[in-house]
Structure formats: C-alpha cells, structure tokens
Specification:
Elements (H helix, E strand, L loop, with lengths): L4 E6 L5 H7 L16 E6 L2 H10 L4 H9 L4 H4 L4 H5 L5 H16 L4 H25 E2 L5 E2 L7 H18 L8 H9 L6 H8 L2 H12 L6 H10 L11 H15 L2 H10 L10 H8 L3 H7 E2 L6 H16 L2 H12 L9 E6 L9 E3 L4 E5 L5 H13 L5 E3 L1
Parallel strand pairs: 2-9, 5-6, 6-8
Antiparallel strand pairs: 1-2, 3-4, 7-8
Helix pairs in contact: 1-8, 2-3, 8-14, 9-14, 10-13, 16-17
C-alpha cells in the first residue's frame, strides 16, 4: 500500500465460516474484512503517526496542519535538510527529535497489514456485533443467542473467542447481550436479576403487560395476557398468586435453558476473562456512554480565544442533549468504539470554512478537530448530526 493509495474493503454478512475467520483476528486483517456488511474507503498514509508525535511534543496545530496539507510524512522528512525543515518547525529541538523519529520509523520492519488491522480492530468489532445481533440473536433491549442449524460447536466457540479477544485487546464487550448469558458462561451462576433482564428482552408491549401484572394483576386485559403467555409456551393459567413464580420460570427458560448449548461452548472460551469480569453488570454500566463520562474524557487546548471557548460550550451542549444512540455515534467517530472504554479525546480547533468546514476525527489517536467558524449552536449541531448519522466513516490509516 503506497502513500495516498485508496483501498476499497468490502464486508459481507455474518455466516458460520466468517465467524471462524473473525475469531482469528490477531493473525491479520485478511480474514476479518469479510465479517460484516459494511463498505468503506481507507486512505493509507504515514502522516497520522507523525502528526500524533508532533502533538505529543506540543508543536503548534497550525504547523502540523501545514505539514499535513503538503503531505510531509516520515519518508519525505528523511530527504530534507535542517534549513528546509526549519520553514515548518522553527524549534531546533523539535527538528532534531523529528529527524530521529523519522529515521527510526523508516528502519522499522513493520507489517502494513498488521498496522492496518490494529487501527481497524475496534471498528470491525463494532460492525461484527451489529450484524451478529441482527442475524444470530432474539430480543429487544437485551439479546439472547438464537440457535441456528448452521451454527455448531465450532462456530459458537469462535464467537466466544471474539468476545475474549474484544475484551483483552479493546476492553470491548457486546453489551446488548443479556448479562445473565455471560454470567452463566463465566461464573456458572447468575448474579443479575433474571426477571429484570427478561423484561428488557421482551418487546415493549409485552413488558408493559408483565409490569402491570406485577403491580395490579386484576387490572390487566386477561385475554391479551393469555395470548402473550401462550407465545412464551406457558402451560399454567396465571393468577395474582402464581404470576411472579411463573414469570421467573419463563425468564429462566428464555435466558438460560434455551441458549444452554451456546453457554456451554462459551464456558471454556471465556475462561481467560474469569478473573477480570466478576461483576458483569458493573462492567456493562461502565461501558455505557453518558454525556458526563465523555465530557470528562475530552482535553482542550490550555489557551483559547473567544471563538474556541464558544466551541467548547457548543460541544458540551451537544453532548448533554444527545440521546444514547448519538453518544455512541460520537464516541465511534472520535475513538472507533461505540462504547466508553476510557480513551481520552484530544480536541483541537481549525479554521476550515465553506464547503471544507466539517468536524474531523483521527481515531488512531482519538483526536477531534473542530472548526471555529460556526455562527450559531444549531449550525454546529446540524453539521455534527449529519456527520454522525451519515454512517460514512472516512478513516486515515497509517
């Protein structure tokens, strides 16, 4: 892959063979790019790593942007003289450090495939699990694995290895899976409230009926209740006295008994996580994005002019009014993961205007570049939503 080359990567839907390939992610990206149904173009160049290094030395952002615009990567800088580089980096210490950094980078025997895969790993996990939820699970808020005739022992073990790999490499868990599934597989027993998880598994209309039965059984439409109980294969007539035990039995059947084969296959593959994931429900809660968590993870320049201070207020207002879906999309845009994994987001400001004005994110280093040319908050909110809702992610891969 040469500098500036565009690579088209095509993803196909989840199938048993591709689940097995996905489980071998650490071997490289060649077996992974087929795992989810998503298309993207990746511009591969070396500039991102150099820019990250310059930012770590607190080089002014305008100098970094100028070098990016002129496509000065490590291979170019090794051909320059000190006088030539002085036009971009006035500090002698920065020039010496950059020359040394670029010479080291040019000598490193790195694998481009491996580096590409490392950058895409979080995105691929997100896309894989989105397709997995659609094609291999049942449920509303919480999902439960669905037994398929084309998914046997090997395929479900591979999915278990993907869970292990995602946590070990990215601190990523498929949080839409009911936590009782992972608890049973990891611990051999359930810590979470089984009925509460079941109520998040059923449809919204069924949840309303079940909760009404728990508080006022006589006030519920009995005909509708019986229809719902029949859907869940209930063989007893519910009454005010026996409804709670029946509900617990149905919850156990749906969440533990029916996916028992899957849980059995995951029991061994998730074994490396037992010491780390003793409180699944707490881990789920920590991974859920909130506006407060994201705002605390963002770092802004220490000195700001009036326009930049206004942009900080716009970002805070945007995060506070965003729903969970848009908070996840914002995290995915900035970090590559739709879950809150504790990564710090470094914000800088640009002078982009007109058709070039747009928020720009570098997921490799979790950098967010924001133009300061928005006249009003609604303009910023509209443009940010357009970027996040487009589901088109332009990623610069080193």
């Amino acid at each position: 892959m040469e500098h500036g080359q565009s690579i088209a990567i095509t993803y196909t839907s989840v199938c048993p063979a591709k689940c097995v390939k996905m489980a071998d992610m650490q071997r490289g990206y060649s077996g992974v790019i087929e795992c989810t149904e998503w298309r993207g173009f990746f511009n591969c160049h070396k500039m991102d790593e150099l820019s990250d290094y310059l930012r770590s030395r607190h080089v002014p952002e305008e100098d970094i942007q100028r070098m990016e615009q002129e496509k000065m990567d490590s291979s170019v800088i090794t051909l320059m003289t000190d006088d030539q580089l002085r036009e971009y980096l006035p500090s002698y210490g920065d020039r010496l450090a950059v020359f040394g950094y670029c010479r080291r980078k040019e000598k490193e025997p790195t694998s481009r495939k491996s580096k590409l895969f490392d950058r895409l790993r979080g995105k691929l996990l997100k896309e894989f699990w989105n397709d997995f939820y659609e094609q291999c699970t049942m449920g509303n808020g919480f999902k439960v694995p669905y037994l398929r005739h084309d998914f046997g022992k090997q395929e479900w073990e591979s999915v278990g290895r993907i869970i292990t790999f995602g946590w070990q490499k990215e601190k990523y868990l498929p949080v839409k899976l009911s936590p009782v599934i992972l608890e049973q597989a990891l611990l051999g027993f359930v810590e979470s409230d089984l009925v509460d998880s079941f109520l998040k598994y059923v449809s919204e209309s069924e949840r309303v009926i079940f909760e009404s039965c728990r508080s006022d059984f006589e006030g519920v439409d009995q005909e509708e209740l019986l229809e719902i109980m029949d859907i869940h294969n209930c063989r007893r007539l519910p009454t005010a006295d026996n409804f709670e035990p029946i509900l617990k039995e149905i919850a156990h059947q749906k969440l533990i008994q029916e996916p028992a084969f899957v849980i059995e296959q995951w029991n061994n593959t998730l074994a490396p996580l037992r010491s780390e994931l003793k409180g699944i429900a707490a881990v789920y809660e920590e991974l859920q994005p909130t506006s407060r968590k994201i705002m605390r993870s963002m770092t802004y320049p220490s000195t700001q002019n009036a326009q930049e201070k206004q942009m900080v207020k716009y970002v805070s207002a945007y995060l506070r009014e965003s729903d969970t879906q848009h908070l996840s999309l914002f995290l995915r845009f900035c970090t590559g993961s739709d879950l809150f994994t504790g990564k710090s987001i470094t914000v800088s400001f640009t002078q982009l205007q007109g058709f070039q004005r747009r928020p720009v994110a570098h997921t490799c280093g979790c950098y967010l570049e924001l133009p300061v040319s928005y006249d009003h908050y609604p303009d910023f909110r509209h443009e940010m939503n357009k970027v996040l809702d487009s589901n088109v992610w332009v990623m610069d891969i080193v």
